[in-house]
Design a protein that fits this description.
- This protein is mostly beta strands and about 270 residues long.
- It has two domains: about 35-60 and about 175-270, Jelly Rolls, CATH 2.60.120.1330; about 70-165, no CATH class.
- The chain has helices spanning about 5-10, 20-25, 265-270, and strands spanning about 35-45, 50, 70-75, 85-95, 100-105, 115, 120-130, 140-145, 150, 155, 160-165, 175-180, 185-195, 200-210, 215-220, 225-230, 235, 240-250, 255-265.
- The strands form five sheets. Strands 1, 13, 16, 17 and 19 form a five-stranded antiparallel β-sheet that branches.
Length: about 270
């Protein structure tokens, strides 16, 4: 199949050179049904067993069934009704039990958790949509399933947490992504970094939610302080596949950050 670049973008009047960078053209919206996704995360205390690269540390426990979510903050100023100085609204981009896109904007209520209208099976992204004078979240914002109690703006059960924002981060930093129904994702690269003087082992893992089969797609090691970049070679991930980046350290514990980039294609347009 040949995908044509719209002439109006590729050689628009006034351009000093033709646009030939396909990823730039995707970002500009030149290709209908194709988008770029960057997922990145930080785990500040990775141990000697594999853990997801995400803010809560440990590994995410996927919800067994779709559920409403609860969103709360450890700071009362993250409030949208009445408006305060911190995060006022949070945007959740996730999916339902059929792995179809499900997005919702939640009005924050400080340390009191707010229940979503939508029934989610998982979250691909969450970020501060509007804020007051602080221009971001003043507390730690957690998004959890509705099975747990909350204390002082934080879920009592760590396993219930589906996403978490560090103070002032404005986004849930987690190197985890689920391919939605009707889409295919292609890996372009993976990157991992550490600030500890020890070796880390990392894995990019794909879980086929339709069959439950989990596969290691890529694996590598970094030496001491520094990072590693692996070219993905356009590895293909089909719909309903959860992609996650994990790591472990050789001794004690330490911070590890990393992420991966995807080109996501709508199947109905490019089948």
């Amino acid at each position: 199949m040949t995908i044509q670049v719209p002439r109006s973008i590729a050689s628009a009047p006034g351009l000093r050179f033709p646009l030939t960078d396909n990823q730039l053209l995707i970002a500009m919206g030149a290709y209908e049904g194709i988008s770029l996704v960057n997922k990145f995360g930080l785990n500040a205390v990775v141990g000697t067993a594999n853990e997801d690269l995400w803010i809560p540390s440990g590994s995410q426990v996927a919800m067994a069934a779709a559920s409403t979510l609860e969103v709360g903050s450890t700071d009362a100023d993250d409030d949208g009704a009445p408006v305060d100085t911190g995060a006022r609204t949070i945007r959740i981009e996730g999916f339902d039990a059929s792995y179809d896109a499900l997005d919702e904007t939640v009005i924050m209520n400080g340390t009191t958790p707010v229940v979503t209208v939508g029934v989610f099976l998982g979250i691909n992204d969450a970020f501060v949509l509007t804020a007051g004078a602080s221009l971001g979240n003043e507390g730690i914002i957690s998004i959890a399933d509705d099975s747990t109690a909350w204390t002082a703006g934080a879920p009592d059960t760590a396993a219930a947490i589906q996403a978490k924002m560090a103070v002032a981060a404005g986004r849930a930093e987690q190197a985890i992504y689920t391919v939605l129904n009707g889409f295919t994702a292609y890996l372009t690269n993976v990157y991992v970094n550490t600030t500890t003087a020890q070796q880390i082992t990392w894995q990019l893992v794909a879980n086929d939610n339709a069959t439950g089969i989990e596969t290691i797609v890529m694996q590598g090691r970094t030496e001491d302080v520094g990072g590693a970049i692996a070219i993905g070679g356009y590895h293909k991930f089909t719909e309903q596949t959860t992609i996650s980046l994990r790591a472990l350290v050789d001794n004690t514990s330490g911070p590890v950050s990393g992420g991966f980039d995807l080109i996501v294609v709508q199947d109905s347009i490019y089948a």
